[in-house]
Amino acid sequence: MDPNQEQPEPRQNNSRVLLWVALVLVLLGINGVLFYLNSQKKTENEQLTTQVQATDSKLTEQIKQYEDLKASYERQSQELQKLGLSNDSLNSRLAGINADLLRLRSFKAGSFSLAEQRRFKERALNLESQLKKRDEEIAELKKSNENLYTETTTLKERQNKLTDTISTIAKTNQELSSKVSVASRIQADNIHVSVLTAKNKEKDDDKEEFKAKRVDRVKVTFNLARNDVTPKDTKTIYMRILEPDGAALYNLSTGGGTFTVDGQEAFYTQKQDIVFDNSRQKAEFVYAKGGDYKIGQHTVELYEGGALMGKTTFTLK
C-alpha cells in the first residue's frame, strides 16, 4: 500500500475537533450572554424592589404624619370646645385630613408616585403650619382667660365683701328702721268708755258696767300721747269693739270695714282721720250698733298704722 494514501484521516479528526471547540465556544458565549442578562435582570429587580420598599416606606411615613395631624386637630377641637369657641373651620380641616388618609391607604404597593408624595407632603406642611398658628392663638387665649379669671375672682371677692358690708348696713338700717317704727308709734292714753241712752243721756259708771238694754251708743274717748319721733301729719285711727264671744262689731253702713293687722285682714268697727300735732290732743269715737248689745265683757282696741295703740274693756249687764 502506498503510504501517501493514509494522510486524509487525521485531517478529518482535526476538523471534528475544531467543530466541537467552536460549538463549545458558542455555547459558552450563549451562557455568558444569558448570565449577563440574568445579572442585569436581577440588578433591575433588586433596584425595583428597593424603589418599591422606599416608596412603601414614604407612604407609611406619610400615613403616620396624617394620623398625627388628625390626632392634633382633634385635640385642638376639644380645647376650642372647652373655651366655648366655634370650630367650624377646624371641622372642615379634619374632614379633609380624613379624606386624605382614606386616599393614602388606598395606594397599592409601589404606586405612591413622586408627584403624589410631593402633593401630600406640601399639604401636610400647610396643615402643620395652620395647626401651630392656631395652637399659639389658643395659648394666648388661655393666658388671657387665666388673667381674666384671676381678675374676676378678685372682683368677686371684693363684691362678696361689699355685699356683706351692704347686707350688714341693710340689716342695721332695718333694725334701726324697726326701732324708729316702734318708737314712732302713737299710743292712746286715758282710754275711757261711756254709753249714751236713746234719750242722749251719757252714763259713766266708774266700774264701767252698764245695762245692755239701755245702751243706744258707745262712746270711747282717749288722748294721743306725745311722740317726738313720729311726724306731725294725718293719722288714720281704727277702733274695734269686740263682743264677749270675740267677734268684732262690723257694719258697712255704720263705718265698718277691714284693715291689715300683723299681715292679716281684720274687721274694724269705725275709723277716723286725725291730724296729729303732738299736743296730747283728745279724740273720741261714738258708735251706734242699731240693735241690742250682748251681755258680758266687751273689748275696745285702738289701732294706727296696723299697730295697737291701746285697749280697754267695759261690761254690759
Order of helices and strands: HHHEEEEEEEEEEE
Give the radius of gyration.
60 Å
How many helices? The count is 3
Question: CATH class of the largest domain, please?
Answer: Mainly Beta
| Largest sheet features | 5 strands, mixed
> Beta-strand percentage?
15-25%
**CATH fold description of the largest domain:** Immunoglobulin-like
Low-confidence segments, ≥5 residues, pLDDT <50? none
What is the end-to-end distance? 205 Å
Polypeptide structure, described:
The chain is an alpha+beta fold. The protein folds into two domains: 15-140, no CATH class; 188-316, Sandwich (Immunoglobulin-like), CATH 2.60.40.1930. The chain contains three helices and eleven strands. It has helices at residues 8-82, 88-105, 114-183, and strands at 188-196, 202-203, 209-210, 217-224, 234-242, 257-261, 264-268, 270-275, 282-288, 296-304, 307-316. The chain has a five-stranded mixed sheet with strand order 3-11-10-5-8, with no helix packed on it. Strand 10 and strand 11 form a beta hairpin. Helix 1 packs antiparallel against helix 2 and helix 1 (8-82) packs parallel to helix 3. The protein is rod-shaped, with a radius of gyration of 60 Å. The N and C termini lie far apart (205 Å). The model has no long low-confidence stretch (mean pLDDT 84).
Short note summarizing the structure:
The chain has 317 residues and is α+β, with helices and mostly antiparallel strands. It has helices spanning 8-82, 88-105, 114-183; strands at 188-196, 202-203, 209-210, 217-224, 234-242, 257-261, 264-268, 270-275, 282-288, 296-304, 307-316.
